[in-house]
Write a structure and sequence with these properties.
Elements: H1 2-13, E1 31-40, E2 47-54, E3 65-68, E4 72-73, E5 79-80, E6 89-98, E7 101-113, E8 119-122, E9 130-134, E10 139-148, H2 156-159, E11 164-168, H3 171-181, E12 188-190, E13 203-204
Parallel strand pairs: 1-10, 10-12, 11-13
Antiparallel strand pairs: 1-6, 2-3, 2-7, 4-5, 7-8, 7-9, 10-11
Length: 208
């Protein structure tokens, strides 16, 4: 148990202190992607990446990219910095203006510490895709992305101290916050993917 706890602490310490800010698109045809990001119980680093696959008229592109990552503060013990919401889940609602078109979230990464020495980064072994569309002047909500500890849960034998991701629809919480920040009357469409369909222990819609 001591070794597992040490590994869990290493996962938190190895995290970057703050998230990188993506630059908003300034074109007149831009729309908005809306999501929540944070942690369950304790602060841990991670990022999901999304990118544009096609323009609204179906032309293939790969020219608009971004990361979904928590805003962490502190040094040894990480925590969400100035959260929009707290409780079992703590985090922020993020609104980003991006070009219109067809997008998908299709990878994640998280850092940790190898007991043999050196930091490491993990990524998914199985491919997955969370698609969403962005329309000019409108917003698309793609869900809540939280990292949760696996220690002390039924997932511990499978995931060890790595933790897992809780990707779920928290629109009742998140859209109240987003609506207050968007231009009044902005249409918001929900496009939350059911990640349980991927059959991955690391991607869940609810706590075990």
């Amino acid at each position: 148990m001591l070794r597992l706890w040490a590994a869990f602490l290493a996962l938190m310490i190895a995290a970057p202190v703050t998230a990188r800010a993506d630059k908003d698109y300034d074109g007149a045809d831009g729309g908005y992607v809306v999501y929540a990001v944070g942690n369950v119980s304790t602060g841990m680093n991670f990022d999901f990446s999304y990118h544009r696959l096609a323009t609204p008229d179906g032309q293939p592109v790969d020219d608009a990219k971004g990361k979904i990552e928590p805003r962490l503060g502190g040094a040894i013990y990480l925590k969400i910095k100035n959260p929009d919401f707290t409780g079992e889940e703590s985090g922020h609602v993020v609104i980003r203006r991006i070009p219109p078109g067809h997008y998908q979230v299709d990878r994640f990464f998280f850092a940790g510490w190898n007991p043999a020495g050196g930091s490491v980064r993990w990524s998914p072994a199985r491919p997955f895709a969370l698609p969403f569309d962005i329309r000019p002047g409108e917003a698309t909500y793609i869900g809540s992305f939280m990292r949760a500890p696996s220690l002390g849960t039924p997932l511990q034998p499978v995931l060890g101290a790595a933790g897992f991701f809780l990707v779920a629809d928290r629109s009742q919480r998140d859209l109240a916050i987003a609506t207050a920040r968007l231009t009044p009357g902005t249409k918001i469409t929900s496009a939350v993917t059911d990640v349980s369909a991927f059959g991955s222990a690391a991607l869940r819609t609810s706590l075990p």
